[in-house]
Amino acid sequence: MKKICLFTASAIAVSSMAFAGSFQLNLQGIRQTAMGGSGVAMPWDASAIFFNPGGLARLDGIQAYASVNLVNPGVRYVQAPTGGYTYETNSHTSTPFAVYVGGRVSKDSKLAVGLGIYTPFGSSAHWDDNWVGRYITQTISLQSIFFQPTVSYRINDFVSVGAGFVYAIGSVDITKAIPLMDMQGNEGQAKLKGNANGIGFNLGVQLKATDKLNFGISYRSKVKMDVNSGDATFTVPKSAAGNFPAGLATDFKSKLPLPEILTVGASYKATRDLTIQADVVFAGWKTYDSLSFDFAENTAALKDTHDPRSYKNTVAFRLGGHYQIGQFAVMAGGAYDPTPTRDNLLSPDAVDANRITLSCGASYQPIPKLSIMAVLNYTTTAKRDVTYDPANFKGAYQIKSLLPGLGISYNF
Amino acid sequence: MSFAACKSNIKPETPSKGDANFSVYVAIGNSLTAGFADGTLYRSGQVNSYPNMLAQQFQLVGGGEFKQPLLPGESGWPIALAAGFYPKRVLGYSTDCLGTTSLGPVLYSGSWADTAGSGTNIAAGGPYNNLGIPGIKCIHYGVTGYGMLNPYAARFYSNPSGQSPMDVALAQPATFYSVWLGSNDVLAYATSGGEGVVGGTGANDISPVAAFKAIYDGLIDKLMAKGAGGVLINVPDVTSVPYFTTINPKGLNLSAAQAQGLNAAYAQLGLPITFTEGANYFVIADPAAPGGVRKMLSGEYVLLTTPGDSLKCGGWGSMKPIPTRYVLTLKEITNIKEATDAFNRIIADNAAKYNLALMDANTYLKTLSTGITWDGVTYSPAFVTGGAFSLDGVHLTPRGYALVANEVLRVINARYHATIPAVEINKYSGIKFP
């Protein structure tokens, strides 16, 4: 038995189904999500730790903040250029969350500190086990959690700055079919599971130009997520087991770069109750050049993989408004997120396209210290006709998702 | 915003038949068209024939019913061990003369009871759309009574003794034909190790080019007389299949002492044959060589059917020459290539004359050698592991046939301005492993 070439196509990929271009999740604050994801210029609440650490020093008192979103993206695949079959991802809900605690160290201090725990990147796509693209991907789940201790300093009434250190943990969980069939017609499968971690930082400057006009700029560094010792296990027909690592298991290493992100924005208080804001977001996706998996034990059937991704940098636009009605506020917004992916390198484990997002939300303040917030975010793409050249896999995809979120904040 | 709005309902683009009419599709050909695999014909192989795959795609653009003369069983047919008709091959373990157990093709060992009734004439259930007959040559197409010579034809021809294959092909009012004829006009010569003659009509001969041309031209002319469309598929380079490429002709591995012993033995016979330590070309019988024996040359082939135990333990290829029927020499390969080229020119001329789609199987199957990737799987011509060729080393697996179907669809789409979608290859099986 000679080499059985199984892993010519991508072994593993880690993206998809995101809401701000590829696998970036833009769900770190309920109000901001409701305003199309904008929010770098205005410190709405303790979520400024994520959006712009410079804004934290402008908050009154200490705030605790928590939010959660229900993410259940739907992706549909159709055969292209014309076709007879379609496949869909199965329903699979994930719950990105954010928790922030922070504020000024004392009532008159210019210094504020805080901690943010949030999930800026993540994805999952559960295709059917027997779908046409099963040798590329069956299921994929990527999770990340960032821990960000943060300091913020109000230099004067106009300028405040902030910085945070990021420690990131994550996990990757992938299954894909192996084109080796047993006598009963069951196919082989590869499972890859691993934990990852990485470090990074973020910086922010917030400018209060006038009572009505704010500017903000934030920079979040690239975070290189390293999987140092993942577990790869294989199920194959008995007679083919000799082509795989002993015990049908081996370790693997991989790297996934989460891109640097620069956001510039402004907010304007048009009337006493209405604030509008807009952000421009530059994402350094070009760093995601390829996805490689390095298996500890290579065999005839198991080679290291190196799949081109060749992502492009992107510039996204976000716009939103916030209208206060006594104890209530309503928010609405929209965003345009161009995809970093290329038409000839779009793998079904990382489906993406230019995204249009519409969002709305509301908040209620039953007592001055407490806010309850809710958001509904709708994201869609046009039908996108693409190929994944390394696997010669063609098709058209559309992504649609409706995701609700809830949050609560309390001022001490 | 309704909840339904968050589920995509995009549909595939609707296929178009373009300028063609697929309402009655008839497939003409040999074993490849019948769905032959693993050394024989069996029911699921027929179900997974490329014409049946094409017919399913044609049905997306107005194609009609596609009837195949299905066998009842999965064991293979006919089975007559004494006459050399074996059940299908499956992957299994066997132990060779050295006591080494390895995985490879073995004969299916299950009950053959499911073949009962295979020989019963089922013409009443026709007319059949898949007219592929294993073993048929192009030059047989005009032979009246051909059904009496070939059990596969006898099964479903309505008048086996009174019809020629051409009569059967013309009996149906087809609107679209596929014709993949001609492989056996060279293949039988190749698989017999070049035992036949060039330009003969015997079982192992290479068919005469003039006869091939007369029959082929006549067939296409008659098929097209009623204004049908079609696709012609040409003759593959039969020497590119694993049947010829699996056993390395330079597969005689010798120690220094073994080489020395052989050198002494051949010197004693006065034959100019020498060996060195390491890999050597096998010794073969060749009537044209001094003493009727010589070493193989680069570019020559040892056939897959060569008994492995004779090579390993019987002294074949070293002490004794491998018999000519297990070897293709350069001269024989040249004969095959020249005939293949001549037949393919005739096929191309007909495609041009009648403005038909032409699937260049010869070129397409050669591209397999560098790998053909489709929907995440890479296929190669490697025996067993390549995924495209079945366990007989000549015919294809269901996935291999699906690759062929998709290449046929590509040329049909181009010629007839159609947009018929590709077959979902991953729905079909490749080689099955124990």
TrEMBL record, chain A:
Pfam families from the UniProt entry: Toluene_X
Superkingdom of the source species: Bacteria
SUPFAM superfamilies found in the cross-reference section: Porins (SSF56935)
Location, primary (coarse class): membrane
Molecular function GO terms recorded: long-chain fatty acid transporting porin activity
Family annotation (InterPro entries): OMPP1/FadL/TodX (IPR005017)
Signal peptide bounds: 1-20
Cellular compartments per GO CC: cell outer membrane
Location relative to the cell: Cell outer membrane
Membrane topology: Multi-pass membrane protein
Signal found in the keyword field: yes
Keywords, ordered alphabetically: Cell outer membrane, Membrane, Signal, Transmembrane, Transmembrane beta strand
Similarity comment: family membership: Belongs to the OmpP1/FadL family.
Protein's name according to its UniProt entry: Long-chain fatty acid transport protein
Organism: Taibaiella chishuiensis
From TrEMBL, chain B:
SUPFAM superfamilies xrefs: SGNH hydrolase
Keyword check for Nucleotide-binding: no
KW Transcription regulation (keyword) present: no
Residues in the signal sequence: none
InterPro entries given in the database record: GDSL, SGNH_hydro_sf
Keywords of the record: Hydrolase
Domain of life: Bacteria
Gene3D superfamilies reported for this sequence: SGNH hydrolase (3.40.50.1110)
One GO MF term: hydrolase activity, acting on ester bonds
Protein name: GDSL-like lipase/acylhydrolase family protein
Organism: Taibaiella chishuiensis
